[in-house]
TrEMBL record:
Belongs to the trans-sulfuration enzymes family. Pfam families: Cys_Met_Meta_PP. The keyword Signal does not apply. Keywords: Pyridoxal phosphate. The keyword Glycoprotein does not apply. GO terms for cellular component: cytoplasm. GO terms for molecular function: carbon-sulfur lyase activity; pyridoxal phosphate binding. Its cofactor is pyridoxal 5'-phosphate. This is O-acetylhomoserine sulfhydrylase.
């Protein structure tokens, strides 16, 4: 039975990934317009072609375009002004995103890596790794993109 269910999932994988990549790209572009968002980390911005790619170098952008022409997936992160208090308010303010430390689900997920996935790591190592107290990670699912953006917008604005 499990193999049968896996095969059913594989049949729709390409369609699901296209939706997740399109939504993740739109969300990353949206987040760049929010004043309280300091940085957006999503390699897919290099494929958007709008000049807003926030990668470290033009050569990295070229690698993304060459190696991932169909998109880089549905996981992105962003940094906000403030720290854990603002992040907690944003997480508490979302209604569409589920607060779960997984990735790759059909549901959209939100988590604060410094408190969940990296909680056992020293603050110094977290900072060196780019996992600050102000980092939020999203795993984009199959919900309507406009609903996801509206949820993030109201949660971020409500946190400040």
């Amino acid at each position: 039975m499990n193999a049968y269910l896996q095969l059913l999932g594989v049949e729709t994988l390409a369609v699901r990934l296209r939706q997740q990549v399109a939504s993740a790209t739109a969300i990353a572009e949206f987040l760049q317009t929010i004043p309280h968002v300091r940085a957006v980390h999503y390699s897919g911005l290099a494929l958007a072609g709008d000049g807003h790619a926030a990668l470290q170098s033009a050569s990295q952008n070229e690698l993304v375009r060459r190696d991932f022409p169909r998109g880089v997936g549905g996981v992105l992160s962003f940094e906000v002004d403030g720290g854990r208090e603002q992040v907690a308010r944003i997480l508490d303010g979302t209604h569409v995103f589920a607060y779960v430390p997984n990735i790759g689900d059909a549901r959209s997920l939100i988590v604060d890596p410094a408190r969940i996935t990296h909680r056992e790591v020293s603050p110094q190592f977290r900072r060196m790794s780019g996992v600050g107290d102000n980092l939020i990670r999203l795993s984009i699912g199959l919900e309507d993109t406009a609903d996801l953006i509206a949820d993030l917008e109201q949660a971020i604005h409500g946190a400040y």
